[in-house]
Design a protein that fits this description.
single chain, binds tryptophan, mainly alpha, 76% helix
């Protein structure tokens, strides 16, 4: 069936789809608060190092598997190493993004709620305190029905895009939304940088404080870089399987990584100066975008409430679309597996996975309300899904992908795919360096992260 498989129309649209997958809540929600908690510029430096030394090699390894086979995870592994157990890794990586999707979609639902709030001009009253904003957020996420309805809506939008297919759905959607996201985040950054008192935020972003850079902070930087580039779970592999055969993997990998990192940094410059201008601690944590920012929007608006509420609208539109272009890639990874392997129709595959993710997402959503006391291994269902995937399954998947390409695949085949049979002269020249990173550097560093995570979890560190 590989012959009539869909593909992305051009390099530009392929990169926009991949960047759409990479740019998400990870960049705009997670990255700024992690920078806040882990020493500002020092964290950013480690993050950048990880992006170059680890993420690009992993990205290339995943895309080599996808482009070579033009199959999704399970069948790709089976095709490259027939009769071995490697294919089960393919299956593992089909399920990881679906688990991520379940809780990601709950947060996606929250962003719809906040978009509605901003559209109804709810952030114009400077008298509402930060605690009051936290209380509003708290009572929303702990309620039963509203978050569930919005989670369902978020999932439904994903299903519509994925059913429409690679060209007519994903490509068409991300081709518009990804550039718009950049435009919007730059607008917010300009607004934020011009606020009185923004200087302290800028300083925080550019002046490294190495004393805050603990081992744990460095580990967070690495984990964050994986999450942000959607690595280790087969999303990039699946998107790469829709690349044209003559596409240059170094170029797609480089462009996607640069866009992703750039977006995170712009988001940092959009958020941190506003946080400082409002006199809030930079390490405000995960509540940053749903508690702190609404407060900032309403206080900043004391003199011009409409303008700051319009910025709020732009901000929550950005978050919603950033989340959607990422979640679509998670759903597509599973759908591609059912289509390739089980020869199912796109619509049927999407509906089945929609059902499964929706149900798990319901449990994640309720774990803030009626199921708050229901713990598995000491964590709520939402936190369990989050930690299990971002701490373990993603790292594990990334490791297996680089080991597969570095040690199981034949070097000649890897080179052939990376250089398009030797026709890409630039890639031929740098092949040995890239191969060394895939074979040695990435696995060693990943094992260190993995082991440290495990030891921390077992309270041995
Ligand atoms: N990278 C996205 C973000 O930054 C999220 C994402 C998409 C993701 N696909 C993924 C995370 C696969 C982990 C695995 O928000």
């Amino acid at each position: 069936m590989a012959s009539n498989r869909e593909n992305f129309g051009s390099r530009t649209t392929a990169v926009l789809a991949m960047a759409g997958s990479a740019i998400g809540l990870g960049n705009i929600w997670r990255f700024p608060y992690m920078v806040g908690q882990n020493g500002g510029a020092a964290f950013i430096i480690v993050y950048l190092l990880c992006a170059v030394m680890l993420c690009i090699p992993i990205f290339i390894a995943e895309s080599i598997i996808g482009k070579r086979t033009q199959q999704s995870t399970f069948s790709a592994m089976d095709k490259l190493a027939p009769g071995t157990s490697w294919k089960w890794i393919g299956l593992l990586t089909v399920f990881t993004p679906l688990i991520i999707l379940s809780y990601y979609s709950v947060v996606g639902g929250w962003s719809i709620e906040y978009l509605i709030k901003s559209l109804t001009f709810s952030f114009t009253d400077p008298a509402v305190s930060r605690d009051a904003h936290s209380a509003i957020f708290g009572s929303f996420i702990t309620s039963t029905w509203k978050p569930l309805i919005l989670h369902t809506l978020f999932m439904a939008i994903n299903a519509v895009v994925v059913i429409a297919g690679v060209r007519k759905g994903i490509e068409k959607f991300t081709k518009i939304t990804t550039p718009v996201l950049f435009l919007l985040v730059v607008l917010i950054m300009i607004y934020s940088l011009t606020l009185p008192g923004a200087g302290a935020g800028i300083e925080y972003m550019v002046k490294p404080d190495f004393s805050k850079l603990t081992g744990a902070a460095m580990l967070s930087a690495m984990g964050q870089s994986f999450f942000s580039l959607s690595l280790g779970v087969g999303c990039i592999l699946t998107y790469a399987s829709y690349l044209k055969k003559n596409e240059n993997l170094m170029a797609t990998g480089l462009y996607t990584s640069v866009f992703d990192v750039l977006f995170a940094i712009i988001a940092g410059f959009a958020i941190m100066p506003a946080v400082f201008a409002a006199g809030i601690e930079p390490g405000a944590g995960p509540g940053l975008i749903f508690e702190t920012l609404p407060f900032i929007f309403s206080t900043m608006g004391a003199s011009a409430p409409m303008i700051s509420n319009i910025v709020a609208i732009i901000f929550f539109v950005t978050i919603l679309f950033a989340a959607l272009t990422s979640s679509v890639s998670m759903l597509e990874t599973g759908v591609a597996w059912l289509v390739d392997e089980k020869k199912m129709s796109r619509a049927k595959a999407t509906m089945i996975l929609f059902g499964g993710c929706w149900a798990l997402g319901v449990l994640c959503s309720l774990s803030y309300g009626p199921l708050a006391d229901f713990h598995i291994f000491g964590a709520t269902i939402f936190d369990l899904c989050d930690h299990m995937t971002s701490d373990f399954l993603m790292t594990f998947g990334s490791l297996l992908f680089v080991l597969f390409v570095g040690w199981k695949m034949k070097k000649a085949d890897v080179k052939d795919e990376f250089t398009n049979g030797g026709s890409l002269k630039g890639n031929t020249r740098i092949f040995n360096v890239v191969y060394f990173f895939i074979r040695f550097i990435a696995p060693v560093v990943i094992v260190v992260i993995f082991a440290t995570n495990l030891l921390e979890k077992l309270h041995l560190l």
